[in-house]
Fold:
Amino acid sequence: MRSYKWIPRLLTAVPLALSLHSGLHAETVARYGISMADIPLTTGQPDRGAGAYQFTGHTIYDPLVAWEANIDSRPGKLIAGLATAWKVDPADNKKWTFTLRQGVKFHDGSDFKADAVIWNLDKVLADKSPQFDAKQSAQVRPRIPSIASYKKVSDYVVEITTKDVDALFPYQLPWFLVSSPAQWEKVGRDWNKFASQASGTGPFKLDKLVPRERAELVKNAAYWDKTRIAKTDRIVLLPIPDALTRANALLNGQVDIIETPPPDVLPQLKSSGFKLVKNVTPHVWPYHFSTFPGSPWTDIRVRKAANLAIDREGIVALMNGLAVPAVGQLDATSTWFGKPTFKIKYDLAAARALMAQAGYGPSKPLKAKIAIAQGGTGQMLSLPMNEYIQQSLAEIGIQIEFEVVELETLYLKWRSGAKGDINASKGVTAINLGYVTADPFYALTRFVDSRYIAPNGVNWGGYANPKMDATLNQIRTSFDVKTQDKLLAQVHQTMVDDALMLWVVHDVNPHAISPKVKGFVQAQHWFQDLTTIRM
Structure:
């Protein structure tokens, strides 16, 4: 595990530097302590998971189809981004036409047109193109698996063809972000140089990047969406992976906002005048099992036993209330929850009975290795929570050991799938990774579609069920929302009845903020709109 001894030194220096800078220019500055060990990629497609999109994704860049992330009273929805409209061809449901927004400029002053969209699709999907970037491709290719081909129709119209008819395809596009071809040429066709001289069309511009120390984003006063002009002149992102160090930085006035405060420090934060912000968050914290032959999790009795062995209320207490028990991939109030027959609850006797039926007991424990993150956005309090799970599973004869890795390494292991050498060579048969569950593709279909078995997608454990595939085909070819909802409920119901994962809790994405911070909106998503922050 890395040492972060540089953090206190950095945090001591940053407030003084910013106060001098703001004194000269009367800037408003918000300092954000993030839970990552490094600044996510700034070239267009951020690494370090879904949480990174609020930092170096939807700040510097825009997608064709955006997600509403500036409201907290209800779930967001798909909205126009760099595309003002999109529609499927009634004669060929594989073809989608996107009408592009006119008058948009990249931060470097170049125009946004169809050529830029095609260039960016090549950047992540066409490995023979000059601008292809393996780092960015690795992040977004699994998120846009439906794309087969694409072409420019005119300066402001692009056509994308999917591999199969896919009515849910637009949900994939908020993850595909558009960076400037002209800027890439200007910096000598070098993505490493582009990282510190980034250019997108987003509401913030990258002003400064110091890897593992900070990124400084400044307001794009010329942003095309006048309703989302940033309310703060400068946002400074400071990677502080240790939760206690983040909390101390907030208490000491070195940062203004932190994510994932440690539960045991909440009373001190509140008594010191800091505000805790949390919300319903479509995000689940599970163990994703391998169902490939040879995995100890192939026996459904073992998977069900594991689910019955966890006292989720105990974990909520461990989190000081900053979590909600999970009884499936989705919250039970979801339209897509369905009516599973397997009821997830805490029942040690039933769990032990299932383990005995599967041939395990005190004298013959089941052993397994789980890959987990040391921390990071979306992973909640990874180490304490995993230790709790480890002790709970030991009570029913499941002995697990952990391979603890840095978050981006965990994502690499995830994209590689259970059969990938990075997992198989280490004997890893389950992975603990927080999942966004805001839309049908991200919540459900990508995990159970046999076409998306890794590395073709993120069906990590190799789940293959012909009946499930048939249901997914019906969903893809139905453009009626009510029909989709009914079929999606069947998908979730089957996932739970098959105990595809060990579901533990749903996150509430807690943030602690200084009284100086106004306008912070905790959206019901892992996407967050930082333009609303005022100081």
Notes: Confidence is low (pLDDT under 50) at residues 1-9, 19-23. The radius of gyration is 23 Å. DSSP finds 17 helices and 20 strands in the chain. The first helix runs from residue 6 to 25.
